[in-house]
Structure formats: C-alpha cells, structure tokens
Write a structure and sequence with these properties.
The protein has 3 helices and 10 strands. With 149 residues, it is of the alpha+beta class. The protein has a domain of 102 residues: OB fold (Dihydrolipoamide Acetyltransferase, E2P), CATH 2.40.50. A 7-stranded antiparallel β-sheet has the order 2-1-5-4-3-7-6. It has a 3-stranded antiparallel β-sheet with strand order 8-9-10, with no helix packed on it. A hairpin with a 6-residue loop joins strand 8 and strand 9. It is globular. The protein starts with 27 loop residues before the first helix and ends with a helix.
Amino acid sequence: MGFVEVEIKIDSACKEPKIIICTEKITDQVNELVKKLSGEPPRIISGFRGETFCVLEQGEILRVYASEGKVFAVTPEGEYTLRLRLYEMEERLDRDRFIRISNSEIINLKKVKRFDLSFTGTICVSLSDGTVTYVSRRYVSRIKHALGL
C-alpha cells in the first residue's frame, strides 16, 4: 500500500471518534483501508490433522503451501490439511503478515528468521522452525517491495 496522508483534528464537540476518507475515486488501497478501519474480524482458518479438526490461529501459521493437489498449513504443532485452495487462503490471511512467494507457497513474514539475497535471481528464506524455502523469480520484485528493498 502506498503513502496515505493522515490528519487528526481535535474537536471538543466530537464525542466519538469519526473517520472520513477523502479520495478522488475508490481504489484497492481505499477498500483495504476501509476493511482495516472497520475492524472486520479475522476470517477463521481450520485444518485437519488425521481425523481431528482444528481452528488455526493466523499468528501461529508459518507457511501455507500446495502439493499434489492439496493445501497444507504448517504450525509449530505440525502440518494441517486445509479444504481451501491456495488463492482462497491468500484472501483469508492477513496481508500485513502473509505474502505469496511462489505459485505454490505463502509465508508468514513474522516467522522469517532471515532472507538470503545472495542467490542469483531468487531469494532464500529461512523460517523460525528451520524450514528453508525459495522465492520464485516471478515473486522476487514483490518480496523486495514488501521488504522495502
């Protein structure tokens, strides 16, 4: 999301906080701001581990990936099978925390230990659980932008 000007007015007649968005037109950025400001509750993510059904906390998810026609979420407690497609997971996950790094994987930026940029044309990602994965060439510029590089 690009730069957004923020202005605060102190008015003793105003008893409840009120947010007004002034814009030339409705854009994806404006819609994203409205969604964040409206306090939309996080969407529930559930997964299966064997016959056990669990509700997963987004903050605990290290990565979500697709393999052999299935989608999996990895947490410190283990791997869960999801009933959603990867693009559906991408829509449900917090965009400030999760980013797609390839056609088959989304990572939690808060669970990244380090990014290694020394690989030519790609980025090596080390996650907090020791998993090593790679950003595909197609997503390198998006990651660099997200990281402010």
